[in-house]
Amino acid sequence: MNEVTSKLEQFFQPVTKFVTEKLGHISTEALGWMAVIVIHAATLPTFLAVMMGLSDRLPPVDVILLVWGGLALMFFRAVLLKDMLNVATIGFGFVLQAAMMALIFFKM
Fold first, then answer.
1. Contact 94/71 with Cβ under 8 angstroms?
2. In a 10 Å sphere around its CB, with 0-12 CB exposed, 13-18 middle and 19+ buried, how is residue 75 labelled?
3. How many CA within 13 A on the CB side of residue 62?
4. What's the average model confidence in pLDDT over 3-24?
5. Most buried pick, 40, 91, 101, 108, via CB within 10 A?
6. What does the H/E/C string look like for the chain?
């Protein structure tokens, strides 16, 4: 019985190592990337409602400044880490949010 247990441990040791080293890293990176998407989407419903004429209330300026400040910090972190996926995602989100705000403010 002891020999069977030893063989099972030898079999599962590389599997356990792979799961803890590789999948743990992938999931934290994916969660960070999804967090950026969710933060960008925080103001999206309000902006769309204003653009479609369903509401005339914009989100408070402090909320916008805090969201953009947090995203700017995450952008600089991604630049320093050379994380091009987050750099591109955050940069694209900034462009979309700026375009939506311009459409709202200039009534195009």
1. yes
2. buried
3. 0
4. 77
5. 40
6. CHHHHHHHHHHHHHHHHHHHHHHHHHHHHHHHHHHHHHHHCCCHHHHHHHHCCCCCCCCCHHHHHHHHHHHHHHHHHHHHHCCHHHHHHHHHHHHHHHHHHHHHHHCC
Instruction: Specify the residue for token string 């694209």.
Output: 92
- Which amino acid, 34? M
Distance of CA 68 to the CA centre of its chain: 13
Reported as a single tens digit per residue, the pLDDT across 65-78 is 998 999 999 999 99
Q: pTM of the entire structure? A: 0.65
User: pLDDT tens, 17-43?
Assistant: 877 777 666 667 787 888 889 998 888
Residue with more model confidence, 8 or 57: 57
Residue with tokens 């002891």: 2
